[in-house]
Amino acid sequence: MAWTALVIAGFLEICWAIGLKYTEGFTKLIPSALTITAIAASFWLLSIAMRSIPIGTAYAIWTGIGAAGAVIFGILMVGEPANVGRLIAICMILGGIVMLKLFSPA
């Protein structure tokens, strides 16, 4: 259950990170409301995951999912550059997430 909560929290982090772009400084009502909801849900699920997953592991995986997902979204949907360095960095983040999961005591 904790790992499921953590993965969902990570995907919600992707949503709110992307949502921040569309709030235009929290001046747009609907994007702002959706972003704030995603933030709250993401933090709530992260806190549930941290009941049994070590804080360092949970936080690193949560931010890693969010960072990699936001970069991938930017490349696929917004036309941000997909150069070799960025792609290697995404692979390193994802590799780190896998390593943390494999070596986590929870």
TrEMBL record:
Keywords, alphabetical: Cell membrane, Membrane, Transmembrane, Transmembrane helix, Transport
Transmembrane segments: 27-46, 58-78, 84-103
SUPFAM superfamilies, per the entry: Multidrug resistance efflux transporter EmrE (SSF103481)
Chief location category: membrane
Location relative to the cell: Cell membrane
Protein name: Guanidinium exporter
PANTHER family to which the protein is assigned, alphabetical: GUANIDINIUM EXPORTER, SMR FAMILY PROTON-DEPENDENT DRUG EFFLUX TRANSPORTER SUGE
Lineage: Bacteria, Pseudomonadati, Pseudomonadota, Alphaproteobacteria, Rhodospirillales
UniProt record similarity statement: Belongs to the drug/metabolite transporter (DMT) superfamily. Small multidrug resistance (SMR) (TC 2.A.7.1) family. Gdx/SugE subfamily.
UniProt membrane topology term: Multi-pass membrane protein
The keyword Disulfide bond appears for this protein: no
